[in-house]
Specification:
The structure is a single chain. This protein has about 150 residues and is mainly alpha-helical. The chain has five helices and no strands. It is elongated. The mean pLDDT is about 80.
């Protein structure tokens, strides 16, 4: 005798069992996909919150550094300039006007004419050479008379 207990419903019953198993697999697959989507959205929200908190911390630290630099600049501008970071990495001191009182400026007619030809104004030349504007004008006129 043949034992047919495994095939109770015949061919049609087997198809129904396969269809139910396929429906169960599809349902569990959809459930896993929904769980993954939910976990992903939770991760994204968590990362966004973390990034926002880090941005606030960075801004607070930047503000603190800026306030400290401003306070240092008020107390000691030379030290503040020496500690200030520059794009090239160079550190420098506050630039001061150089004392040129001991320097001698050579007053040369050719030099005055060359600078005037390059576009220097009569007032500028007078200030640089320590002469009056009339004397600079005489030097420039003497050049045109010679030529």
């Amino acid at each position: 005798m043949v034992d047919s207990s495994w095939n109770l419903g015949g061919a049609a019953g087997g198809r129904r069992d396969a269809a139910t198993r396929a429906d169960e697999r599809a349902g569990s697959s959809e459930a896993r996909a929904a769980e993954r989507a939910e976990a992903m959205s939770a991760r994204l929200e968590s990362r966004a919150a973390t990034r926002a908190a880090q941005a606030q911390e960075r801004e607070a630290a930047r503000r603190t550094r800026s306030d400290a630099a401003a306070a240092l600049a008020e107390r000691d501008p030379h030290r503040a300039a020496a500690e200030r970071k520059r794009g090239s990495g160079r550190r420098d001191v506050v630039r001061q006007d150089r004392d040129v009182s001991g320097y001698a400026t050579l007053v040369d007619g050719e030099r005055i004419r060359t600078l005037a030809a390059r576009g220097a104004s009569v007032a500028g030349l007078a200030a640089v050479f320590g002469l009056s504007e009339d004397e600079i004008a005489r030097v420039l006129v003497a050049n045109t008379e010679v030529a």
